[in-house]
Amino acid sequence: MQIKRKPEWLKVRLPASHEFQHVKGILSQFNLHSICQEAHCPNATECFHSGTATFLILGNICTRNCLYCNVRHGTPAGLDEMEPERLTQAVKELGLRYIVITSVTRDDLADGGAGMFARCVERLYEEVPGCRVEVLVPDFSGNWDALECIVRSRPRVINHNMETVPAFFSRIRPQGNYHLSLELLHRISAYGEKEIAVKSGFMVGFGESWSDIKVLLHDLARVNCGTVTIGQYQQPSRNHWPVMKYYHPDEFEVIKGIAQELGVKRVEAGPLVRSSYHAALIS
């Protein structure tokens, strides 16, 4: 199917700033990956311009093949035990005070990579006093011991994205499970660690109805998810799920209002919003 032409509000300038090149150079220097680049995030220009980045740990090859995602899938390499140290050094070089760490899904690992997440968080707290850390985690295939390992490291925010509404979940994310993802979010709040914020996000444009969106928002509010990001799906290639609709910025305001009415406290919604967009401001 032919990729739909993007409306004007989705067109962004090419990343050519000095700050963008500086962040890119630091990532290369310390052999690190950024989801900003791997997933072709539309906000890479803005975020890199402000000297921030979302770090991608555990390699850049995912064991799953979701139909919206541009990250490569296949068989990943083994663990890089020095990754927490290199990540910390890069954060120091960039002078960051709010760090987002995410990963590819690693179904090949017994703990899904949770131990590496925890080590990165703990190392950052030791070496960069005053920094705040947000983690964007996979579902760990329902391994709740792995999730608890991350909770014990005490990141400021634990984020797990739903990505799409329940009616499309099994088609868009065939190796995931909608109810398991909701259970993960519920368990974060159930641990009783009040200082850890629960966050999720999803995209629209897959073909969902307004009723579908309300169902998802209701479910997120029900599991005490306090922060939600909502953005426009953009088809990475002709091999990915097609864009069925481009939502107008005014429609995102409507969605934001619905989320707040249902009890979601903090909402970032807009065509270019992604899960780490304005993360430090809405955490």
Could you please describe the fold and organization of this structure?
- With 283 residues, the protein is an alpha/beta fold.
- It has a single domain (8-282), classed as Alpha-Beta Barrel (TIM Barrel).
- Helices cover 38% and strands 15% of the residues.
- The protein is built from 11 helices and 10 strands.
- The chain has helices spanning 18-29, 35-38, 44-49, 83-94, 114-127, 144-152, 166-172, 178-190, 210-222, 249-261, 279-282; strands at residues 33-34, 54-57, 61-62, 72-73, 98-103, 132-136, 157-159, 197-204, 227-232, 266-269.
- The strands form 2 sheets. It has an 8-stranded mixed β-sheet with strand order 1-2-5-6-7-8-9-10.
- Strand 9 (227-232), helix 10 and strand 10 (266-269) form a beta-alpha-beta unit.
- Helix 4 (83-94) packs across helix 5 and helix 5 packs parallel to helix 6.
- The longest helix is centred in the middle third of the chain and has 14 residues, at 114-127.
- It is globular and about 45 Å long.
- The N and C termini lie far apart (38 Å).
- The model has no long low-confidence stretch (mean pLDDT 88).
